[in-house]
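Could you please review the protein record set out just below?
***
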Amino acid sequence: MPRLLSAALCLAFLAASPARAALPFIGKDEKTRIEVSFEGVEGALLDNVRALSSLQRMAAAPDLDDEMVGRLVQRAPGEAATALRPYGFYEPKVTTDFKPAGEGWKVTVKVEPGKPVMLVEQQVEVTGPGREEPFIRGALARAALKTGERLSHPAYEQLKGELLRAALGNGYLDAAFTEARLIVDPATHSARAKIALETGERYRFGATTIEQGVIREGLVRRYLRYEEGDWYDAQALLRTQFALDDSQYFSLVEVRPGQRDRAARTVPVRVTSEPNRRQIYTIAAGYGTDTGPRGTIGWEDRRFNDRGHRLRAQIRASEIDNSLGLNYIIPWKDPALEKLSHSIRLYEEQRGDVETRGGTFSVALTQVRGNWQRVLSVALDRTVDKVTTSSGGSPLVSESQSFLLVPGITFARLPPDFLGVNAVPRGFQAELLASTKQIGSDTDFVRLDLRDDRTFRIADKWRVRVRGEIGTSAVGEFEELPAQYRFFAGGDNSVRGYAYEELSPVDAEGNKVGGRHLLTASVELQRDLPRNFVAAVFVDAGNAFNKFGDPLEYSAGVGVRYRLPFLSIGIDVAQSISEPDRSPRFHINFTPEF
């Protein structure tokens, strides 16, 4: 098995090797093909030379002949010279080699960029009331245009664009360049840049007009990411657009600034919308290596009333979890980020060798504080845990019932700019749950669960993903603690190479019944491949146990990912290192991407 894993890893990473500058023969007609290669340039220079090359664009043309290819070759030096000027090379030497090759032609374009033009002086002046604004200073500090370095037309245009966008986007709507010149002297290989921006006065938000007949206007106004009288901010309008889109009350929303009032220096805003379908039904089926085949049937009333309340019902079925849930959601102070939820859930689930039946009623208040999501909750649980043991050929069933009132608090780190999508926690999360007989519960316990998931880019196409989880609990009588509050390990997002929640302490009969503590960790090296694919190798470790110091289980494997805008779909093959005689295990996983 180690040889198999090594071979698979080598194949995945060899597939990611960079391509050569020479392109293969291509064309619709096997008799009309051009092979084009460029020598002497690389990186951005090579990309621009290719982009402006008629030879490159016509390589697959169906009606090529010697005369047409000759004309294309004659144009190649001038096109290459044009492509190099934006990067400061004004006196290149370009030669071509053109000859028949098989059923087509082979063209080599040799480029000597020559001595570059250097930027010997730049004057960037910002005048007006906004000259000292942090966003203006930031645009200047980020400028890639540097005196004493090779001239870059893109860097010059980027600086102009960032300065103007910073001013206009933050309320200086009359900002304009009074001077913008780039003087190039190829004879002396020198260039001088001069940029002068006048910001003008800053504008504020004026009145907002809202056109909709779906929910109360006061609720819609709570979605606005600005207030009348605030400094005008284009990003605030964009965040308002996102917030109203995500509300799902509207099928179409437009948030547009109106004609600015130059005398009052205000900008009115108009919000127009069309109502969304009120009720939706969902039917979904899928498969996961943790859950097996699974299906969901759901219904939602997006506008239960004109105050924006929602009602959701859902039935889920899989090999490990069957449930019926009802959720009533009330928008809170900031409805784009905060809510009050009332939930009822009836379920049967399998955790290790414990089968749990029960019901939960919970109330949760979700609030956002900066980049943190906080959830205050209280749950009322009534459960029955059943463990079946085969003894002497006949099954022996033991059951335990419990009633718990469980307050809790959860903190989760939110990704940057999370308002653009539904607020999904990422990275560090902490959950604290507790209960006591003093409030009517059947047992006393405190449970803390900490987890983190980070991805670090270490090179252009290389990343390292690190995740870990540590859980601990203090319990009066552990046997009285329901299985849903015990710890288990193993599965797609835990220790791969093991089945879902397979890792657990066992009771006297050998049944996996969960533990007091949990520790898992994973390190995964990822390499970007073409077409949004990613190759990965990983090492996982962890276990659930009743005392710290108990041994961990280890596994390693290889995988491939397909990255979508907000989701990564992964397939992994993992082999246990702790138990090398075990068969490799196949995993499918879905991971949010930000």
Remarks:
- Confidence is low (pLDDT under 50) at residues 1-32, 420-425.
- Helices lie at 2-14, 43-51, 54-58, 66-84, 134-141, 153-169, 217-221, 234-246.
- The radius of gyration is 32 Å.
- The first strand starts at residue 34 and ends at 39.
